[in-house]
Amino acid sequence: MQPVVTTMLGVLTSATVALTGTLSPTSTTAQEEIPIKGQSFGLGTVESGSPAVFTVHGVRRTDKATIVYWSLGLPQDAAGDNAMNYLGPSTTTYFNRKVGPKQGDVALVDSGGSDSGATRIFRPMEPGGKFESCVCSKQKTLFELKPGQAGVVWSAVASLPAEVTEVDVVVGEQIIPNVPVEDGPMEPVAPEENEVSILGFGWPKINDELLANAKTPEPAFYSLTSRVSNLEQTVTRSKGTVDLATDVLFDKDSATLSPKADSTIQAAAAEIKAAKIKGGKGGKDLNVTGYTDSVGSDSDNLELSILRAKAVAEALVHALGSDYGMIPTGKGEKEPIADNDTEAGKAKNRRVTITFEGEK
């Protein structure tokens, strides 16, 4: 007997996901529950109609990788042959730095599981074979998915540390939060004669050879950190310096101060006032110097650094008053304080430095 499985798609739309095609049932029965760890809706690049349902059924540890079992449920009004469109544009160029099928675009986010408390996003495993495009289920499952069906897919992600017990799953441009991490593949496994994996007919069998030849991406994860300390300062009695990270002041490639920049400018102004600047011809002179990382041309970086220095100088005039004279300038990518070969180093080099003479 073929099982009829009602998913959250059916609950929310008062409909049942249709299980059509020639498939062999497993020991799963209609009375057994399909585990649902979290769900989301998405249209991807589909411009109209009902959204598809993304369901995470399990995140499982194995010896080689972390396996994510998830399904894509098509609405009854879905146009034919467009299941992949619900996943949105491919994001493997971000996660995996390789062009591949979109069912491999799965990542896991650990929010604070590391000793440092930093958020980490674990990336998809990389296929070892020349003609393999992802470490995941066959594309046939989603390519042949019909309206009303829910296709089940497995996708391999880099191994999680033992202390990580819960993750957010990123799939199909959706984020499904707070999914528990469990051990071992899901059971029962669908019969091998089932060429496509439809929800309710067992879980897709992991390709052991594909997984054995897979490579862990380098790095296995990206750290996503927010700067709590926006202001790095060194103030002495004879000379003071205030360094501002431009990432908290400007959007990428922009010289317009962002709305969140005000608190950083005010903090810098408070430090400058406390330093007791001595007067000069221009009043209490502040040298405001902009710097960039090495991305882009020398001329573009120089121009951007000058414009950013001018923007900060103007904001400081409003914060400090007319008693202070501003001398804005830019040096582009010159005089880096960190290695431009790393993202962390580039972030440090993107800065605006305020220097002044303190009272003697």
Automatic annotation (TrEMBL):
Family annotation (PROSITE patterns): OMPA_2
Q: Which SUPFAM superfamilies match?
A: OmpA-like (SSF103088)
Name any one Pfam family assigned in the record: OmpA
What's in the keyword line of the UniProt record? Answer: Membrane
Q: Show the segment(s) annotated as Disordered.
A: 331-360
Write down the InterPro entries for this protein, in alphabetical order.
Answer: Bact_OuterMem_StrucFunc (IPR050330), OmpA-like (IPR006665), OmpA-like_sf (IPR036737)
Instruction: List residues of the OmpA-like domain.
Output: 237-360
Q: Which GO terms describe its cellular component?
A: membrane
Q: What is this protein called?
A: Outer membrane protein OmpA-like peptidoglycan-associated protein
Taxonomic lineage is: Bacteria, Bacillati, Actinomycetota, Actinomycetes, Micrococcales
